[in-house]
User: Fold Paraoxonase from Sus scrofa.
Amino acid sequence: MAKLMVLTLLGLGLALFRDHRSSYLTRMNAFREIKPVELPNCKLVKGIESGSEDLEVLHNGLAFISTGLKYPGIKVFEPDKPGKILLMDLNEEDPTVLELRITGSNFDLSSFNPHGISTFTDEDNTVYLLVVSHPDLKSTVELFKFQEEEKTLLHLKTIKHKLLPKINDIVAVGPEHFYATNDHYFVDTYLTFWEMYLGLAWSYAVYYSPNEVQVMASGFDFANGINISPDGKYVYIAESMAHKIHVYEKHANWTLTPLKSLDFDTIVDNISVDPVTGDLWIGCHPNGMKVFFYDPENPPGSEVLRIQNILTEEPKVTVVYADNGTVLQASTTASVYKGKLLIGTVFHRALYCEL
Ligand SMILES: [Ca+2]
Ligand SMILES: [Ca+2]
Assistant:
């Protein structure tokens, strides 16, 4: 009888494991092959070799790029080098990148591990750059003031909070006010692996201000990119492992009401919003297995989606760029400026194309 019990439990365990494994592969989009979509006049951006995880373009065409992210489970090409913030002027004919020097006495450069970024421009035109960082695999938001003349970032503050345990991306709505996604509930690498493998969907989004911090949306299977519409009325959240973009109505008290969700056949990462048209530009991973289990012989591809008229009954979705990894691996983010498209990646280079 005892043997029968053990065998039954073993069988149930195996069945559960098989179910989870098949759902895990589906969530990872493990069977997706990519059909290339090319753009004219693409150039790899010189000076970027260890990723360009997130980027944001200011109204004047200056782009901030975070590079050198070390994320548990993802291949790192330069493990000993701290991360950096790069500046690129998209008005130039053949733009190059420049490393922004970080100033301020209390900032530890050696553990800087930049991830999602966002900017906030004040009424007096002061530009604040908010950067998610993972010093020693913890999560902080580093607040900087951009000093354009000196090409420096003055470090003002480190923000930490128990509701910000595992931040992926942020969208600033004030100098010290933002929405943030936590891509996992757990911080410990082993537990986050199981959280993701089992598809617990315990990831969530938070509103942060110096006097109020609150969970505003939850139940995500890996909440990733977050952004806001140009009129500030809608918040967009990418749910990577569910392949969805969610639209929320934002209220005066900062709470969010779900409005609609769009489904895709790709793992959606960071979201950029065109300040003029309101279009969403999304850096995507067609096949997540190739990102998490990196093989140079069979590298991860890249895919950029554009969503027009997202608030209407019939949003238009276009695959603007797609590559099997020969040119660009593991695209995370894409932004437009004056007919050009800048695409960033997890651990690889960045690509600048004409549209
Ligand atoms: Ca961002
Ligand atoms: Ca991201």
